[in-house]
Amino acid sequence: MNGFFGPLDSDGRVPPRQQTRVASFLISAHGALGRRFALALPPRLESAWQTELNAQFYNESEIVSLLLRATNWTPDLALGYLATAWETTWFPAPAAGIPDPTLALAVDLATLAHAIHAGIRPAALLPVEANPNDPFAMAIRRVEFESGRLLQAQIMFLKGESLVPFRDAVSAALERRHAEVRKLWHELLDSIGITSRNQNDAKP
Amino acid sequence: MPFLSYSSYRIRYELDGPADAPAYVLVNGLTQYAELWTAYRDALIARRFRVATFDLLGQGESDKPPLFISQDDQVAALHLLIQELGSGPVFLSGISFGGLIALRYAIAHGDRLSGLVPMSCFAELPPQLFLLGNALRTGLILGGTSYLQDLLLPMNVSDQWLAPVLDKLDSVKRPGWLVNDVYALQNLMESFLDFQPLTPQLPSIGLPTMILNGEFDFLTPRALHETLRVNIPNSSLVIIPRAYHAFTLEKPALTADLLARFANDVMAGRWRGNKSVWIAPDEAGGDLMPFPAGYDHLRAVPVQRAIS
Question: Which residues of chain A are within 8 Å of residue B63 when distances are taken between CB atoms?
Answer without folding.
Answer: 199-200, 203
